């Protein structure tokens, strides 16, 4: 062993095994976070291959001390840390991409749920604010329409009854008119007959009065004519002829009437 160097203790393999166990535990935790088992398995296989390529600590202890064990352990740990940092960066990028994709999907789902909630709320509000009042308005209109139908039916019944009464009154009026016409015609016939009788009696009276008056006139004129002989005689004859013609014309006229 060269001077100035402290001998390595036998606890290094245990620490190395603990570090290996910590590495595997870390990959298992990253496996649970990433959610893709194939990529995690590939990362673990790469790490195990690199660890297998490294020289174990027991080989360094079995050697005579030709190469420094501490430097090689440090370089091995640095390489192992670099590999872990690379794996961590890849896992970090993968995790970021997965979280971004998950956030996008979750945001899309949230937007879809929000839009569905808005549509359902709008439908509910539309149903509450418009559909229900419209249904109530339609029901009220139906009730009013039914009431109007009942009123119209009652009005039709009343109108039919009034029409029947009007028809009956019209028929009664026409019968009364016919009876009145018949009675009027009978009355006119009786009045005409009575008028004819009265006219005949009146004509007879007038004729008798005219004859009596003419006879009195003729008699007076005859008395006067006896005093005058020549002129009066001719005048008497002429007057008698005229009187006879007047009586004949008057009698013929009365017979025609």
From TrEMBL:
A Pfam family hit:
Cor1
List the protein's name.
Answer: Synaptonemal complex protein 3
Per the UniProt entry, what is one GO biological process?
spermatid development
Q: Which residues belong to any copy of the XLR/SYCP3/FAM9 domain?
A: 86-205
List, as start-end ranges, the regions of compositional bias called Basic and acidic residues. 11-34
Q: Which GO terms describe its cellular component?
A: synaptonemal complex
Give the compositionally biased regions (Basic residues): 1-10
GN (gene name):
sycp3
Specify where the region named Disordered lies, as residue ranges.
Answer: 1-44
Q: Which InterPro entries match?
A: XLR/SYCP3, XLR/SYCP3/FAM9_dom
Organism annotation? Sphaeramia orbicularis (orbiculate cardinalfish)
Report the domain of life of the source organism.
Eukaryota
- Similarity-based family: Belongs to the XLR/SYCP3 family.
């Amino acid at each position: 062993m060269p001077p100035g160097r402290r001998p390595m203790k036998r606890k290094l393999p245990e620490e190395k095994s603990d570090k290996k166990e910590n590495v595997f535990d870390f990959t298992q935790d990253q496996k649970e976070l990433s959610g893709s088992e194939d990529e995690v398995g590939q990362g673990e296989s790469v790490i195990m291959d690199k660890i297998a390529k490294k020289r174990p600590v027991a080989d360094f202890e079995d050697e005579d001390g030709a190469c420094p064990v501490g430097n090689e352990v440090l370089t091995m740990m640095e390489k192992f840390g670099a590999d872990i940092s690379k794996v961590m960066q890849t896992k970090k990028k993968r995790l970021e991409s997965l979280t971004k994709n998950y956030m996008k999907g979750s945001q899309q789902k949230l937007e879809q749920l929000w839009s569905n909630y808005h549509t359902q709320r709008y439908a509910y509000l539309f149903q509450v604010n418009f559909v229900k009042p419209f249904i109530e308005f339609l029901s009220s209109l139906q009730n009013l329409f039914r009431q109007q139908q009942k009123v119209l039916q009652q009005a039709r019944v009343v109108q039919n009854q009034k029409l029947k009464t009007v028809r009956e009154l019209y028929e009664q009026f026409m019968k009364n008119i016919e009876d009145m016409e018949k009675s009027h015609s009978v009355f006119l016939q009786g009045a005409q007959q009575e008028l004819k009788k009265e006219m005949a009696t009146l004509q007879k009276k007038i004729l008798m009065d005219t004859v009596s008056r003419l006879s009195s006139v003729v008699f007076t004129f005859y008395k006067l004519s006896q005093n005058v002989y020549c002129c009066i005689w001719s005048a008497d004859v002429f007057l008698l002829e005229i009187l006879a013609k007047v009586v004949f014309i008057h009698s013929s006229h009365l017979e025609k009437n």
